[in-house]
Amino acid sequence: MCDLLIFVILCSSNIDTKQAQTVPVPRKKEVFEPKAKTKITCRRLFECIDAMLDKNMAIIADIGDSLFGAADLTVHNSNHFLSPAFYTSMGSAIPGALGVQKAKPKVRPIVIVGDGAAQMSLVELSTIVKHGLNPIVFVLNNDGYTTERLLADGEFNDLQPWDYHQIWQLIGGGTGSIVTDEETLDLAVKAALDSKMAFVINVIVDRNDVSNSLRRMTEILSKRI
User: Fold this and answer.
1) Residue 154 contacts by C-beta under 8 Å, 6 or more apart in sequence?
2) Mean pLDDT of 31-51
3) Residue 44 resides in a domain
4) Which is more confidently placed, 7 or 205?
5) Please, which residues have CB within 8 angstroms of residue 63's CB and are 6 or more apart in sequence?
6) Alpha-helical regions (H) of 53-124
7) In this predicted model, which residue has the larger pLDDT, 215 or 4?
8) Long-range contacts for 127-131 (Cβ within 8 Å, ≥24 apart)?
9) What is the Cα–Cα distance from 131 to 129, expressed in whole angstroms?
């Protein structure tokens, strides 16, 4: 009876009708062409990740610039992008990869995590290796808590440097690579895609190299501190 009443009210109302919006056309898949002897930047890192993505991959981004950069990536399935919404959720991306691949074994997680977040949960890769899973983990290594650094700089934003790509020596499985320029990034991505194991790519970028989105947000927020 209630549904019928709502239907009658809607039919008798003067609500303006709107034409359905045009469904966005997927962007043309770009090929990442590495430039020789060129230091890697955040922008080029995300361009490289975007070029490698397909329908069998899910993007799992941690908070900070990992999320802001990942927001422009091409998502090939509507439910293949996961990220926390709050800064207090830092460190959730790597354990998130475990949940995604256990739930969907045919989907390969592409994890994007900052070095600060990685230091909170990198050892979760031990469980991932134990279960024979193979996510590709990009550690956006910019030498500290960059989001906080842009809001209020200080030594408290600095981290003890880790060799993230060497985590396998501790947990006894998987593999990894360190990246400093576009050519080594291209080689590392190709090796990761061919690998049947979990793979960590330690991407060294300048500590002041951040996305435009993150910079705009922190410029506004820093005025309130």
Assistant:
1) none
2) 95
3) no
4) 205
5) 83, 84, 86, 87, 89, 90, 114, 117, 147
6) 65-70, 93-103, 115-121
7) 215
8) 127/98, 128/94, 128/97, 128/98, 128/101, 128/174, 128/198, 129/171, 129/172, 129/173, 129/174, 129/197, 129/198, 130/173, 131/98, 131/102
9) 5
Q: How far apart are CA 34 and CA 89, in angstroms?
A: 33
Distances 150 to 41, 60, 85, 138, 217 between C-alpha atoms, Å: 18, 24, 19, 22, 10
Beta bridge pairs of residue 92: none
If one compares 135 and 28, the residue with the highest pLDDT of the two is 135
Compute the distance between CA of residue 128 and CA of residue 122 in angstroms, rounded to an integer.
10
Residue 117 lies in a domain: yes
pLDDT of residue 48: 97
Q: What is the pLDDT of residue 207?
A: 86
Q: What are the residues whose beta carbons fall under 8 Å from the beta carbon of 191, sequence distance 6 or more?
A: 177, 199
* Structural domain count of the chain: 1
Q: Read off the pLDDT of residues 73-83 as tens digits, 9 standing for 90 and up.
A: 999 988 899 99
Q: Is pTM beyond 0.85 here? A: no
Give me the domain span that covers residue 77. 57-222
Confidence of residue 214 (pLDDT cuts 50, 70, 90): low
Question: Which CATH number covers residue 109?
Answer: 3.40.50.970
